[in-house]
Amino acid sequence: MALAAFHPRDLQEFTRAFEDLFYAADAASMTSYYTEHAQLMADGIDPLQGRAAITEFWRAAIARAAAVRARRTIRLHESHSSGDLGYALCTVTVDIPPASDPSDGGTSIAVWDATIWQRDPGGTWRIAVDISTPLPRPHAGSPGGVSAAGSKAAENR
Known about the structure:
CATH topology: Nuclear Transport Factor 2, Chain: A
Low-confidence stretches: 141-157
Shape: globular
CATH architecture: Roll
Radius of gyration: 16 Å
Oligomer: single chain
Helix content: 10-25%
Largest sheet: 6 strands, mixed
């Protein structure tokens, strides 16, 4: 799978499709959006390179999320392309329900995610670099759970 065009509408469709693949536990199809030698960098892990390593990353992330019944949401904030390169800036929010006491409200974890996309010779766009970093937790008293960085609480990949 890949994008045929690099426009906000196409990227929005990608975020929904990527979430659907996550919930379908289809790590291989998620990874098909990456170039053959793509790199993935996330908090707490060594950088990964190549589709095989990225597929294993997504398999593990899917299993961890399923174990705690987490819900994941991607929100596209900005995108731009020039020539055969483009970037997309997103926040990813993971909401984890409470383990036992529903009144505890659960947990939300947020990350900024920057993806660098590359158009291949056939004209399709794939992720060449995927970098995420945790957002600060919302400050007590912040309206609507908005953090100092201006985003709602979200996920750690």
